[in-house]
Write a structure and sequence with these properties.
Blueprint: H1 5-14, H2 16-22, E1 26-31, H3 39-54, E2 58-63, H4 66-76, E3 82-83, E4 86-87, H5 91-115, E5 120-124, E6 131-135, E7 144-149, H6 152-159, E8 163-167, E9 169-172, E10 178-180, H7 183-194, E11 198-203, E12 218-219, H8 221-229, H9 237-249, E13 254-259, H10 265-271, E14 278-281
Parallel strand pairs: 1-2, 1-11, 2-8, 5-8, 6-9, 11-13, 12-14
Antiparallel strand pairs: 3-4, 6-7, 9-10, 13-14
Helix pairs in contact: 3-5, 4-5, 7-9
Amino acid sequence: MTRDPAATAKTLSEALPYLQRYAGAIVVVKFGGNAMGDQAAMAEFARDIVLMRQVGVNPVVVHGGGPMINDLLARLGIKSEFVRGKRVTDKATVEVVEMVLTGLVNKRIVQAIMDEGGRAVGLSGKDDDLMVCEADDPELGFVGKPVEMNVQVLRDLFSAGIIPVVAPVATGMADNETFNVNGDTAAGAIAGALKADRLLLLTDVAGVKNAAGEVMTQLTPEDVRRMTDEGVIAGGMIPKTETALAALDQGVRAVVILDGRVPNACLLELFTDQGAGSMIRSTEPRVKPREA
């Protein structure tokens, strides 16, 4: 397909107000879903993240890796137990989780960003005590809930022009304690601690839908609570919207739940009138947080 140079130039020109708006902003992106297993989709995502950094945005990538964890557990013959539909993470399982997330998945994303001309460093919640957890539910074993965040290491990487790529594995309050953290939860906690301008939760669905099945492009926390009470928001969307509300409470300016399968989804959301997915923001206007 031949691209029209004039159309490309017009698109870049129209993006100027958005480029100015997000210059210096912190944007936390939760990356997961089908795109992680597709080489072309991974490269496209990495290119978008590099472009964001190139125009002055400070992106943080937080990733999951459930399918890869399931694959290695099966190959090792480690059977999983489930309580109320959630995997029990025992000591053997958390060791596999750490290997897969901090090793295979994390470095694959770092390499993809480097291949697109960016600079990236992979780390986990254990590094510099970035994320300290306690058990979320004793029945689930080593599944963590963040209770202390130390994000200075991320700010140091921003200052050096480096994109942090964070695996959701954390340390505990006790010595030699490791916790697996839900990827959305980890992204929300990091965004909250950074007082991020945006938290982008990439999923495999178009966004939050109303009772008629239509994607809601703008929602307030009150809308989310009402739709949850009415059963309109249900299933796997509940933990994502709960993460969004918690992040807003911690000072994130807006959270967007968007379809990571859409080409250039992050760029569409940040740099166009169209946007992508469902934005959840407080009814009260927020002043962009500035460091002292």
